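During the second half of the funding period, the structural biology subgroup turned its attention to how the target accommodates small molecules. The most pressing case was 1,3-dihydroxyacetonephosphate, which had performed well in the primary screen but for which no bound structure existed. We therefore specified the complex as follows and requested a full 3D prediction, including the ligand pose.
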Amino acid sequence: MRRYLVAGNWKLNKGPAAGAELAQAVSNLLQGRELKGDVLVCPPYVSIPAVSAVAAGNPVMTGAQNCADQNEGAYTGEVSPSMLKEAGARYVIVAHSERREYQRETDDSFVAKINLIHQAGLKAIFCYGEKLEERKAGQAQAVVKAQLEGVLPRLESADAYNTVLAYEPVWAIGTGETATPEQAQEIHAYSRQVVGDLLGATVAEHMRILYGGSCKPGNARELIGLPDVDGGLIGGATLKAEDFVGIIDGAEAANG
Ligand code: 13P
């Protein structure tokens, strides 16, 4: 059985004070509950220490949304995985479609980042997914395969413990349009097959593959209940404590 992971990607929202407040509200709602899975929030860098301080001693872990592809040196404006670990992060998101698009990040930097994340003892959440025009052209599987093949075989020590995948169809991110359960399950099962070809059947069987794209309390149970969906990477709906916990409730029910 794969343990679910519900991860909130706060994107460019919630500075230290507002972030600590939101983390506290989530923590209060979860107080005393024994969860069947893992819960993570990924605030902006500067909010990681404040959010981690709130999260200490409760089931909510802290992660980062990005990291440098170098550990130290003359790289102005960058933050390394080992610094993120020191600040309280346990996971780092890599290759989000917004960074692929706006920062023009490439496979080479994803490989470097994930290797450093693993060396720091952190877990990587590697995002991938097709754009609308690619889906319309019938290329969703081909795009997903290329994205996985461009990175996974080049990692030094990827396994199902230190690496999480997040399938995020670009057309579903922040649009209110969610992949149907059939669409999600198809790509998740296909992704698992590709992982099996690249990293072996045992890793594929244990690797968690999250779904991301307009996930909310109303659809979380159905999506996370799909055979090859092991949780969610969620943006907008995680900025309200009640909605985030509603998604966690969906994951709990799906894993009941
Ligand atoms: P939304 O949940 O806002 O669609 O964002 C998904 C996402 O990009 C998570 O990384």
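Two results from this model are relevant to the next phase. The mean pLDDT is 97. Residues 9, 96, 168, 173-174, 212-215, 233-237 surround 1,3-dihydroxyacetonephosphate (CB under 6 Å).
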